[in-house]
UniProtKB/TrEMBL annotation:
Keyword annotations from UniProtKB, A to Z: Dioxygenase, Iron, Metal-binding, Oxidoreductase
Pfam families: RPE65 (PF03055)
Species this chain originates from: Aurantiacibacter gilvus
Known cofactor(s): Fe(2+)
Residues in the signal sequence: none
Name by which UniProt lists this protein: Dioxygenase
UniProt-listed PANTHER family: BETA-CAROTENE DIOXYGENASE, CAROTENOID 9,10(9',10')-CLEAVAGE DIOXYGENASE 1
Membership in a protein family: Belongs to the carotenoid oxygenase family.
Database matches in InterPro entries: Carotenoid_Oase (IPR004294)
Lineage: Bacteria, Pseudomonadati, Pseudomonadota, Alphaproteobacteria, Sphingomonadales
E.C. numbers: 1.13.11.-
């Protein structure tokens, strides 16, 4: 079969696939890397090693590729490597794309027909260090362990068999003080099931509890939040069903008729009792974090009123609604003392739309003040051509208590991926350190890592690491300080 990317509009320009592993010793630097910045920025995303079988397939089905910027003493080394999932290896052996629509095993070819989970995963969504291991995550399968120095694939990791769900979230929550992880798998009892299995895992990787419960309906549960005492589980109208999959459709469809829910259960103990709160349709794909006091929970999240993903169609074929897809910062208050099963919603910072919400992770599970978010500031100049899109150009440090924001404008030629945060020291004040994001330079069509100091974001980037090519795509990335690196 002849391999060609021609005729794939979604794989051109900024989305032209990188099909190579790479290694750069001593990258070009513009400005000066902070001398105290010492660690590794790990990223993971998707690249189509072979073009998709269906041209309208979700980019979430692209092959996982991990990258790392290792920074120390003012220098930076870079590496990228495909995650060698069973799917990636099967495709390479066959020299063609064997897999059909995103997470639809009925659309796969030949021996791959009916395969899902470990056989079909791309390990392309998040990459974390936990219990001394570097793990690439994708919510349809267990974590994939990678070598932290070379990014070589070691294989699936299921906590020595103690994590028994077949799926593992891309957004486990690690308590910033204790190192305890809250993880979960949804569709945990097979394809199209509404079962969620929730785990507590100690900082050393020991699974300490397993709890099983059912969601009101099968929904994408991409992210959750934890507060001091609760786990919060958003469920919304991004739905699937066995019928949908048997009809040969992409896994997810948007159902406008579905209300949204937030499930609340105790973070501690063994109870699997969930109290489901209900509200209007919305999509809470990513959270900042949550806190609670006297039974009143405050949850900050990046939320849209409707379907945020144009490649997951409306279940009734309604046209994609760009206005409803706009994702902004919202605050939810849930009162566990009240008999009311609703919540209050406050829309905030409405002129700053951005979807990939973060905080200083040292404060996860505890009181926090600052949200970190890349957003598109439409009032700032853009010198490139991103196919009519206005890319993210600013990294914001949002004071969620005070309602103000400090921002770094990357420059008119840049489009930014998700923000990552590097604390200045292990005990630095909240959000005191550096923000960084992978940038596409639309003048050169190459990639740069832009880095700013949270003490003076308005001054712009303090340093840029320039790559001699466009780096592989990113869904999520994380800065791992030297003091947290696996030995
Ligand atoms: Fe995510």
């Amino acid at each position: 079969m002849t391999l060609s990317y021609e005729g794939y509009p979604s794989l051109q320009g900024d989305f032209e696939p990188a099909r190579f592993n790479s290694q750069i010793h001593d990258c070009e630097i513009v400005g000066e890397l902070p001398p105290d910045l010492d660690g590794t920025f790990y990223r993971v995303g998707g690249e189509w090693f072979y073009p998709p079988k269906y041209r309208d397939d979700s980019p979430f089905a692209a092959d996982g590729i991990a990258t790392m910027f290792r920074i120390a003493n003012g220098s930076c080394d870079f590496a990228s490597r495909f995650v060698e999932t069973p799917r990636y290896l099967a495709n390479k052996a066959a020299r063609q794309q064997l897999f059909g629509y995103y997470r639809n095993p009925f659309t796969h070819e030949g021996e791959q027909q009916g395969q899902y989970g470990r056989a079909d995963t791309q390990s392309n969504t998040n990459i974390i260090v936990f219990a001394g291991k570097l793990l690439a995550l994708k919510e349809d399968a267990p974590p994939m362990e990678l070598d932290p120095d070379t990014l070589e694939t070691r294989g699936f990791f299921d906590f020595d068999g103690a994590y028994t769900a077949p799926t593992f979230t891309a957004h486990p929550k690690v308590d910033g003080r204790t190192g305890e992880m809250i993880a979960y798998g949804y569709e945990a009892e097979g394809l199209a099931s509404n079962a969620i299995w929730l785990y507590t895992i100690a900082a050393d990787g020991t699974v300490t509890s397993e709890r099983k419960f059912a969601a009101p309906f099968l929904s994408m549960v991409h992210d959750i939040a934890i507060s001091q005492n609760y786990v919060l589980i958003p469920v919304y109208g991004m739905v699937s069903s066995m019928e949908r999959l048997q009809e040969g459709k992409v896994h997810w469809g948007w159902d406008r008729s579905k209300p949204s829910h937030i499930g609340v259960l105790s973070r501690h103990g063994s109870s699997n009792a969930v109290r489901w709160f209900t509200g209007p349709a919305m999509a809470m794909v990513h959270t900042f974090s949550a806190t609670d006091r006297d039974g009143v929970i405050t949850l900050d999240a990046a939320v849209s009123d409707g379907n945020p993903f144009p490649f997951f169609p409306d279940v009734e074929d309604a046209p994609f609604d760009g206005a409803a897809a706009r994702t902004t910062i919202r605050r939810y208050v849930i009162d566990m003392n009240s008999a009311d099963d609703g919540w209050t919603e406050e829309k905030r910072f409405q002129d700053k739309a951005g979807a990939l919400s973060r905080i200083d992770d040292r404060f996860l599970g505890h009181d926090f003040r600052y949200g970190l978010l890349g957003y598109a500031d439409e009032y700032l100049p853009f010198a490139g051509d991103a196919g009519g899109r206005r890319p993210v150009n600013s990294l914001g440090k949002f004071d969620l208590a005070g309602g103000t924001v400090e921002s770094m404008f990357a420059g008119p030629e840049y489009g930014l991926a998700e923000v990552a945060f590097a604390p200045r020291s292990p005990d630095a004040a909240e959000a005191d350190g550096w923000v960084m994001a992978l940038a596409t330079n639309y003048e050169t069509m190459k990639s740069e890592l832009v880095i700013g100091d949270t003490r003076d974001l308005a001054a712009g980037p303090v340093a840029k690491v320039r790559l001699p090519f466009k780096a592989p795509g990113q869904v999520h990335g994380n800065w791992v300080p030297r003091w947290m690196m696996p030995s």
